[in-house]
Amino acid sequence: MVVSAAFIIVLSGFSGIRTFNLDLLKMTDPDIKMTAKKGKSFIFNDSICQSLDQTKDISAFAQVVEEKVFINYNNKQKIAKIKGVDTNFYRVIPLDSTVFAGHLPQPGTKELLMGLSLANEISFMLSGNNIQTINLMVPKPGKGFITDPRKAFYSEYFFPVGIYQTTSDHDNTYLYSDLQAAQKLLNYEPEQISAVEIKVNHPEAIIEVQNELKKKWGQDFDILNRKEQNMLVYRMLNTENLMVYFIFALILLLALFNIIGTIMMIIIDKKENIHTLSILGLNFSEIKKIFMIQGFSMTVLSGITGLILGLILVYIQRISPFLYIPQTNMPYPVEIHWYNIFYVLITILVMGGFSTYIAVLSLNRIKN
Fold first, then answer.
1. In this structure, how many other beta carbons lie within 10 angstroms of the beta carbon of residue 77?
2. Which one in 1, 150, 279, 330 has a CA-CA gap of 20 to 30 Å to 228?
3. Mind giving me the DSSP string for 275-317?
4. Which parts of the chain sit beneath pLDDT 70?
5. Cα–Cα distance for residue pair 136/359, rounded to 1 Å
6. pLDDT number for residue 342
7. In the prediction, which pLDDT does 271 show?
């Protein structure tokens, strides 16, 4: 009962963490991303624009320039990524809701939005009246050896005006600026961009829109949904969930040795009664069936009781949280899914039947 309750509680907890992490990805990654198959950039022409405008279920799309940059600020250096975005970007990804200090970069300026982890690493703080600048450098494309380091980089000064907070990895990597400012830093043409990021009206239409865009532009562009953009994250979450399942399945199997021991003790205790039933005409298979039913009932009833108790605790955590993530005021996320209940029930039934069968094998000694 205890292991069954713990089983469903932990699986529900991991389901909650999975959903929480995937919701965070919605704050940083678009529903669909369109990048060039060859090279780091492409020309966003009228044909692509009209095609996206005419595609059903696309609610918004944004032009994006993205590249690694070298940050130099107060004798502190760091490699990060600059992401130049147009005015539609915040309709595609609600990054504006994560800004907790300052404001978003204004169009046509060299203003910069910085992640909290990155700001802490380079010891940057927003100051209301004191305008601070950060030097960003990117290497110039070319071949051969660098003879003059001063001519090997494009360099521009930017003005950080806001700080956002999402996930630590993202915060520590990305700087956001106006699209034209990033294009100028990279020496791009006005229509030259790195990607188009797309927002779809509802999640159910993402695959349909992706397939439609692949038919039109699949030869020239990689068109990836959010899962394909973050395959490593999805694989990690799936692997963690699978490992937790196997660990608790093993714990449940060890707990079921109590059932095996109990049934064997009952069989030894009822040895005389078994002989009496045999003399009265009950055959060995029917006697075996009695102990199979008893052991299986013990396993299933205790397992289902634990499952119900675990679900009650998970439900209480959802409606009236009593567990919080350490050092935060955020309730520990939990979710009740039918497939988790199914996995626990199937595991209890299979392992319960197996352990009962092993215990009932001791009847063979009495028979002999």
1. 12
2. 330
3. HHHHHTT--HHHHHHHHHHHHHHHHHHHHHHHHHHHHHHHHHH
4. 128-129, 142, 144-150, 364-368
5. 71
6. 93
7. 80
Which helix (H) or strand (E) is 240 found in, with range? helix 231-255
The tally of domains found in the chain comes to 2
Instruction: Report the largest interatomic distance among the alpha carbons of the chain, rounded to a whole angstrom.
Output: 104
Tokens (6 digits) for 212: 């439609």
Residue-wise DSSP of 144-206: S--S-GGGSEEEEEEEEEEEE-S-HHHHTTEEEEEHHHHHHHHT--TTEESEEEEEESSGGGH
Instruction: Please give the pLDDT value at position 104.
Output: 92
How many CB atoms sit inside 10 A of residue 183's CB? 21
Task: List the one residue out of 93, 90, 118 whose CA is nearest residue 104.
Answer: 90
**pTM of the shown model:** 0.80
Q: How far is CA 222 from CA 61, 211, 218, 353, in A?
A: 16, 11, 6, 50
Question: Of 211, 228, 245, which one is at a domain's C-terminal end?
Answer: 228
DSSP per residue, 48-94: HHHHHHHSTTEEEEEEEEEEEEEEEETTEEEEEEEEEE-TTHHHHS-
Length of the chain: 368
Task: Report yes or no on 66 lying in a domain.
Answer: yes
Domain holding 250, by residue range, is 2-20+233-367
